[in-house]
């Protein structure tokens, strides 16, 4: 019997609010969810243990009034905007036949996107989703006793100007070498017709494995103990 996956389409929610919602679902609910969002205002998001001064041109970001947000999970630093496609899975252990460890979760998700989107050259490379030798999506995870979160920011498109707010990290994937953001990244718009098409194909692929049920996230507003730890840095 298929397990139920609750589908949440946010469309335009700021990433800070999305992270708050994700943590609320992680900590106060027992069900499994898939969250899709696109249209967030420009923000810089760091992993929970990241140091903004090492990874971001903080002075420039503050001058241009770009929020610096620390999510509740690990992972790298990204700048997101209206052209970022977010997909998050919040899963109860046992709802998928996937061991709740980082590598199996990454392999499962990569295979899911590869089959759903059928983009030539799409693959998992270290902890990134790539097309050929270029990154199109970055991941972060949070795993607890009975649940796990796997969230991804896909580049539908990006601007070189935005990438200028980020420093080249000292710890970076081996396959990146010393490539600049421009030479290291590729937008999905060069490989797919439309972000809505990708979302539809993803849902169609998930239906083969899970029962998809729409979920009204606004019913969560009165849940007690909703305390996200992501914060403005």
What's the SSE blueprint?
Blueprint: E1 4-9, H1 15-28, E2 32-38, E3 43-46, H2 52-55, H3 58-63, E4 68-70, E5 78-80, E6 84-92, H4 102-117, E7 122-125, E8 128-131, E9 134-143, E10 147-155, H5 160-163, H6 181-184, H7 195-207, E11 211-214, E12 231-232
Parallel strand pairs: 1-2, 1-11, 3-4
Antiparallel strand pairs: 2-6, 3-5, 4-12, 6-10, 7-8, 8-9, 9-10
Helix pairs in contact: 4-7
Polypeptide structure, described:
The chain is an alpha+beta fold and 233 residues long. It has one domain: BirA Bifunctional Protein, domain 2, CATH 3.30.930. The protein is 26% helix and 28% strand. The chain contains seven helices and twelve strands. It has helices at 15-28, 52-55, 58-63, 102-117, 160-163, 181-184, 195-207, and strands at 4-9, 32-38, 43-46, 68-70, 78-80, 84-92, 122-125, 128-131, 134-143, 147-155, 211-214, 231-232. The chain has an eight-stranded mixed beta sheet with strand order 7-8-9-10-6-2-1-11, sandwiched between helices. A four-stranded mixed beta sheet has the order 5-3-4-12, with no helix packed on it. A hairpin with a 2-residue loop joins β8 and β9 (134-143). α4 packs across α7 (195-207). The radius of gyration is 17 Å and the shape is globular.
Give a summary of the structure in a few sentences:
The protein has 233 residues and is an alpha+beta fold. It has 7 helices and 12 strands.
State the separation between the terminal residues, measured CA to CA: 44 Å
| Shape type | globular
CATH superfamily: Bira Bifunctional Protein, Domain 2
Order of helices and strands: EHEEHHEEEHEEEEHHHEE
Helix proportion of residues, in percent? 25-40%
Helix-strand makeup class: alpha+beta
CATH class division: Alpha Beta
CATH architecture: 2-Layer Sandwich
Give the count of structural domains: 1
- State the major sheet: 8 strands, mixed
- From the 3D structure, determine the CATH topology: BirA Bifunctional Protein, domain 2
What is the spatial order of strands in the main beta sheet?
A: 7-8-9-10-6-2-1-11
- The count of strands amounts to 12
Number of helices: 7
The value of Rg in angstroms is: 17 Å
Low-confidence stretches: none
Beta-strand percent range: 25-35%
Task: Look at the structure and give the mean pLDDT.
Answer: 92
């Amino acid at each position: 019997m298929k397990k139920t996956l609750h589908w949440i389409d946010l469309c335009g929610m700021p990433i800070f609010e999305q992270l708050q919602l994700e943590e609320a679902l992680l900590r106060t609910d027992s069900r499994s969810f898939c969250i899709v969002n696109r249209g967030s205002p420009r923000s810089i998001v760091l992993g929970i243990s990241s140091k903004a001064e090492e990874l971001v041109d903080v002075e420039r970001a503050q001058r241009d009034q770009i929020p610096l947000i620390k999510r509740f999970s690990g992972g790298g630093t990204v700048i997101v905007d209206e052209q970022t496609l977010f997909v998050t899975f919040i899963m109860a252990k046992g709802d998928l036949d996937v061991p709740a460890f980082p590598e199996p979760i990454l392999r499962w998700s990569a295979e899911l996107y590869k089959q759903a989107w059928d983009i030539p050259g799409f693959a998992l490379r270290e902890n990134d989703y790539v097309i050929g030798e270029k990154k199109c999506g970055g991941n972060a995870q949070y795993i607890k006793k009975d649940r796990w979160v796997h969230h991804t920011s896909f580049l539908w498109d990006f601007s070189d100007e935005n990438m200028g707010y980020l420093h080249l990290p000292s710890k970076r994937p081996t396959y990146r070498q010393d490539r600049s953001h421009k030479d290291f990244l590729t937008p999905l718009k060069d490989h797919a017709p439309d972000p809505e098409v990708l979302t539809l194909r993803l849902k169609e692929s998930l239906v083969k494995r899970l029962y998809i049920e729409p979920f009204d996230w606004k019913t969560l507003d009165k849940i007690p103990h909703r305390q996200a730890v992501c914060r403005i840095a």
